[in-house]
Design goal:
Elements lengths: L8 H7 L22 H16 L5 E8 L2 E7 L9 E2 L4 H14 L9 H4 L10 H5 L2 H5 L17 H7 L14 H15 L3 H10 L24 E2 L1 H12 L3 E2 L2 E2 L3 H7 L37 E2 L5 E5 L3 E6 L4 E7 L4 H18 L2
Antiparallel strand pairs: 1-2, 1-10, 3-4, 5-6, 7-8, 8-9, 9-10
Length: about 350
C-alpha cells in the first residue's frame, strides 16, 4: 500500500490542466493522478448505464483511488469538483473520528457514561437504562431507544435526547439515531472546549489539505454531528484514503491504528434506518439482499468483501476496500441507496480487485 505524498508544485500545475475522467479541475489537487485503466473505464460505463436505466439512482460525482492514486474522476449534472456537497450521514464518520482522537489523547473512554457529561441536563428521575448508556453505545447506535429522538421544536437538543424513553437495555438493540451522533458531537465539544468542526480543522482537515468546511449547528452552537457537513468529492476520497492507510498521512499518525481498526470493524448487528430489528425478517431483509444488514462499526457500515463505508442519505458514500487497496467516493441524489451500492459492488469491485 502506498502512503500519500504531496506532489510537487510543477506536478500540481500540470494536473490542474486536466483530470482523469471528466471536467477540468478548479480546486487545488494533491492526490496524485494516473491514467484511467480500460477495465475501470468499462466498469464506470456499466455503472452509468445502470444509473440511466434506473431513474431512482442519480450519480453526481465519482472518484476512484487505487494504491493512493486517483484513477478515475468525473462529475455529472450541476456537480463540479470545487462545489461542496451535502454529506448527510457521512458526517457521522467525521464526528466519530473526533471522538477517536479524544480517546487517543486519553481524554475520554468509550466506556464513559453519557449522563456523566451532562449532569445539568439530565431529568430529575433517570432510568437505569439511561444511566447505562456509554460512548460505545452512541458510536454503535445501541443506546436502547426504540425510536429515533425527535429534536424538532426542542430548545435544547441535549435535554431532548436525555428525556427520550430508553426502553431497551443499552447494547442490545440497534436503532439508527442521528441524534445519538449529535450527542457525540456535544461530548467532544464539552471535553475539548472546541466545536467538532474547529477541533477537526487543525487535526484532520488542515493536514489533509481540506479547506475548512461548513457544518450545521444546533441552537446551542454545537455541530449537528450526524448530518450537516459539506465536502468536495476529493475531500471525501482523502478521508477514505486516510482510513485505508490506518490513520497515517504524510508520515504523521493523525488517528491511531487501533481506532481505525475498531471504527471500521463489525461491532454490532444492524438494520436499515427506520427498520426495527424485530421486523427486518418480515420485510424480507437479509445480508444477501441488503448491505445495511451486514453490521455496523463506529459510525461506519460494513460492506461486502471486507470493505466498509461512510454512508449518507441520497447516496453519499466513502467506500474503503482494503482487499483491493482502493477507495471510492460518491455523491448522488438517489432514492434507491441499495441499487446505487449494488452497481458499485457489481462492476467496480471486481475491476479494482483484478487491477494490480
Amino acid at each position: 500500500m502506498k502512503t500519500i505524498r504531496l506532489i510537487s508544485a510543477l506536478a500540481l500545475t500540470a494536473l490542474l490542466m486536466c483530470s482523469c475522467g471528466g471536467k477540468k479541475q478548479q480546486n487545488i489537487i494533491d492526490l496524485p493522478r494516473e491514467a484511467t485503466p480500460p477495465a475501470i473505464q468499462a466498469a464506470v460505463d456499466a455503472i452509468l448505464a445502470g444509473d440511466e436505466a434506473d431513474p431512482s439512482v442519480t450519480f453526481e460525482s465519482l472518484m476512484v483511488l487505487k494504491h493512493g492514486n486517483v484513477i478515475f474522476e468525473d462529475w455529472y449534472g450541476e456537480a463540479a469538483p470545487d462545489i461542496p456537497h451535502a454529506m448527510h450521514s457521512v458526517s457521522k464518520s467525521f464526528t466519530a473520528t473526533a471522538i477517536g482522537m479524544l480517546v487517543d489523547q486519553g481524554k475520554i473512554s468509550v466506556n464513559d457514561k453519557l449522563v456523566d457529561f451532562f449532569p445539568e441536563d439530565c431529568p430529575e428521575e433517570m432510568s437505569d437504562n439511561l444511566k447505562a448508556i456509554t460512548v460505545h453505545n452512541l458510536l454503535t447506535m445501541n443506546c436502547g431507544h426504540e425510536t429515533e429522538v425527535n429534536r424538532r421544536g426542542a430548545d435544547n437538543w441535549v435535554k431532548a435526547f436525555l428525556a427520550h424513553p430508553v426502553t431497551k437495555t443499552p447494547g442490545t438493540w440497534y436503532c439508527y439515531n442521528s441524534m445519538g451522533t449529535y450527542m457525540l458531537s456535544a461530548i467532544a465539544q464539552k471535553v475539548s472546549g472546541e466545536k467538532v468542526l474547529d477541533f477537526l480543522d487543525t487535526r484532520l482537515f488542515q493536514p489533509l489539505h481540506i479547506e475548512k468546511p461548513q457544518w450545521e449547528e444546533s441552537p446551542q452552537g454545537i455541530n449537528a454531528g450526524g448530518w450537516g457537513l459539506y465536502l468536495k468529492t476529493e475531500d471525501m476520497a482523502k478521508f477514505g484514503q486516510l482510513f485505508l492507510q490506518k490513520g497515517k498521512w504524510n508520515g504523521e499518525q493523525l488517528i491511531s491504528e487501533n481506532w481505525v481498526a475498531e471504527a471500521s470493524k463489525y461491532q454490532v448487528p444492524s438494520v436499515p434506518a427506520g427498520t426495527r430489528p424485530d421486523n427486518a425478517a418480515e420485510r424480507g431483509l437479509t445480508p444477501e439482499n441488503s448491505t445495511f444488514m451486514l453490521g455496523y462499526g463506529y459510525q461506519m457500515w460494513m460492506c461486502p468483501e471486507g470493505a466498509y463505508r461512510a454512508d449518507g442519505a441520497r447516496g453519499q458514500y466513502i467506500i474503503v476496500y482494503p482487499d483491493a487497496d482502493a477507495v471510492i467516493a460518491v455523491t448522488a441524489d438517489s432514492n434507491n441507496l441499495q441499487a446505487e451500492q449494488d452497481l458499485i459492488y457489481k462492476y467496480l469491485f471486481p475491476a479494482l480487485k483484478a487491477l494490480k
